[in-house]
Design brief:
By secondary structure, the chain is of the alpha/beta class. The protein has two domains: 2-132 and 195-224 and 395-411, Rossmann fold; 240-393, Glycogen Phosphorylase B (Rossmann fold, 3-Layer(aba) Sandwich). Helix content is 42%, strand content 13%. It has 17 helices and 14 strands. It has helices at residues 15-29, 71-82, 85-98, 115-122, 153-156, 161-164, 172-187, 190-193, 202-211, 252-259, 276-284, 299-308, 324-331, 344-347, 362-374, 376-393, 396-411; strands spanning 2-6, 33-37, 102-105, 127-130, 144-145, 149-150, 196-199, 218-220, 240-243, 266-269, 291-295, 311-314, 336-339, 354-357. The strands form three sheets. It has a six-stranded parallel β-sheet with strand order 2-1-3-4-7-8, with helices on both faces. Helix 15 (362-374) packs across helix 16.
């Protein structure tokens, strides 16, 4: 089968890109032809198809940096955010030159354009979109407001709540722009044109049904972890590990509060693109703690910490959509302490593959951490359970088989 794989980053920035390159490798290993479509960027991996890539808007990873750009870049960003005929023409050229069986989209909002969906459908090519956030339902894609916390006001209520609450970058202007783009896409029935959606978590699938997307189009296919070490040798040293972006919605303030004034060691691997790390350090200044900020690392650098920690933590305070770090922890035989919230309980089964704590309950969070420090054999046992779970339920073969069944059903081909 010939598959066009779409994502607006052709380099690894986070979970969606790790999935992109992992599934690309698996599809190619199974004899499929994979054709990437992305945006030019100095950090991109090389590709035989990069001449088809869209001109870059900038070299930044995050939309939040747009206020630093030239007017030309901002206008082009608006075009892609709303509907770009330039992108449509360029993507149609790739489609006609390669004649693919289907288009599999990861992330396209803001830096590509929904016009690629029309380009494919006009040529009779099926489109499948893998959902990694809440862009279709929420203008800031998070169901999270920096002041209110979790927020679903736009899901079933007045969409102008986004503007009133300044949900996008705490800005009325940005909120109006993102809401305008969403209203245009709704009027164009973009989601109706997509043949199928791959949804990693049951929780997110439920939200999409609540939003109004046909249940028949939604396919729950969890992601996977490709463990290249068959049976990794690990240790259980007395420290807890957090891996991820250092952002408010990730629950970092609850995390540092749970560890302050204790003798428990915490290592934080990640980066902040909005200065939130400095806010956390300012909060900790003068307080007793054993917390280290280790900065940004690539996955190969993170692995030794995964192999040696007591457990990992995922204290998310937004609807984290099936975070990869949980499967990565399981793959290295580590239990996870996670918020009992959103999709996380689907992965972290309390008392089996980790422990869960009540949303924003620092005392409950601290008690679960304390339990593992007091009972390291339990942390090890749950880590072993987690390892068996990731091998059984989240293997590359399981994911590939379910994905190919969907691809074959949509295209009517058996390849």
């Amino acid at each position: 089968m010939k598959i066009i794989l779409v994502n607006y980053r052709y380099f690894i920035s986070g979970g969606p890109e790790r999935y992109y390159f992992n599934i690309k490798e698996i599809l190619e290993r199974n004899g499929h032809v994979v054709i990437p479509f992305s945006v030019k960027n100095s950090r991109n991996f090389s590709s035989d198809y990069e001449t088809y890539f869209l001109d870059r808007l900038d070299d930044e990873v995050y939309f939040a940096h747009s206020n630093k750009k030239s007017m030309k870049v901002i206008l082009k960003s608006f075009s892609r955010m709303f509907y770009s005929f330039e992108v449509k023409r360029k993507f149609r050229q790739l489609l006609t030159d390669t004649n693919p069986d289907l288009v599999y989209i990861m992330q396209y909002h803001n830096k590509i354009s929904p016009s690629i969906i029309d380009a494919a459908k006009n040529l009779g090519i099926p489109v499948i979109h893998r959902i990694s956030d809440f862009q279709y339902m929420c203008p800031n894609a998070l169901f999270y407001n920096g002041v209110k916390g979790v927020c679903e006001e736009c899901l079933n209520g007045n969409r102008w709540n986004c503007v009133r609450n300044k949900c996008v970058l705490n800005s009325t202007v940005y909120s109006v722009i993102k809401l305008g783009a969403k209203m245009l896409h709704d009027a164009m029935h973009i989601t109706r044109k997509i043949d199928a959606f791959v949804v990693p978590s049951s929780f997110t699938l439920g939200k999409l049904v609540e939003y109004g997307i046909s249940r028949q189009k939604l396919h729950h296919i969890p992601t996977f972890f490709n463990l290249k070490e068959g049976n990794p040798q690990v240790e259980y040293k007395p420290f807890v590990l957090f891996v991820g972006r250092i952002e408010k919605q990730k629950g970092l303030m609850s995390l540092v509060k749970a560890f302050q004034n204790t003798d428990y060691n915490l290592k934080i691997i990640g980066f902040s693109n909005d200065g939130y790390e400095d806010e956390l350090k300012a909060y900790l200044n003068g307080k007793r703690h054993h917390i280290e900020f280790l900065g940004k690392m690539n996955f190969e650098q993170i692995v030794p910490y995964l192999k040696s920690c007591l457990c990992t933590v995922v204290p998310s305070e937004w609807y984290d959509n099936f975070p990869n770090v949980i499967l990565e922890s399981f793959a290295y035989k580590k239990a996870v302490v996670a918020t009992n919230f959103g999709s996380l309980p689907e992965l972290v089964r309390n008392g089996e593959t980790g422990l869960t704590f009540n949303y924003q309950d620092v005392e409950d969070f601290r008690s679960k951490i304390a339990y593992f420090f007091a009972h390291p054999t339990e942390a090890k046992a749950m880590g072993e359970n987690a390892f068996q779970n990731v091998q059984t339920c989240f293997s590359p073969a399981e994911h590939y088989n379910r994905l190919m069944k969907l691809f074959n059903d949509i295209t009517g081909k058996q390849k």
